[in-house]
Amino acid sequence: QVQLVESGGGLVQPGGSLRLSCAGSGFRLDIYAVGWFRQAPGKEREGLSCISSSSSALNTYYTDSVKGRFTITRGRDKNTVYLQLNGLQPEDTGTYYCAVPQVCFDEWLPTIRNDYRGQGTQVTVSS
Questions:
Q1: DSSP characters for 102-118?
Q2: Which residues touch 52 (CB under 8 Å, ≥6 apart)?
């Protein structure tokens, strides 16, 4: 069974940082593009960032609200993707999920494969 496993969330004060991890279980994550989106109560899903597959030219995308604060990278093990969150603000609160889109570009969120799912990791920014 293929699965995405997210971790690294937590409670942090405004201005703080977290590093989220996304690991592939049952498949090789490095051969796919990977994205991160978040879901806050009462709000629509928001695509945050994505990174191209390891076999493609490196391409990353960030939505405007996180540019300069969040950084997406691949781990050396080739089966993990990280999202570094810096300068966190209360509006960043939500459940963060990683996903496998067809390709990494600015409209990647609707292309995610529903057969690759994770449970998400909660990020709460509060003083």
A1: SS-STT-GGG--TTS--
A2: 33, 58, 59, 60, 103, 104
Spatial distance between the Cα atoms of 19 and 43, rounded to a whole number of angstroms? 23
Please give the Cα distance from 107 to 14 (Å, whole number): 29
Q: Give, for all 127 residues of the chain, the pLDDT tens digit.
A: 789 999 999 999 999 999 999 999 999 999 999 999 999 989 999 999 999 998 888 899 999 999 999 999 999 888 999 999 999 999 999 999 999 999 899 999 999 998 898 999 999 999 9
CA angle 84, 121, 11 (to 5 degrees): 75
CA-nearest of 40, 44, 24 to 96 is: 40
Residue appearing with tokens 């609160």? 93
- The CA angle 34-40-45, to the nearest 5 degrees, is 45
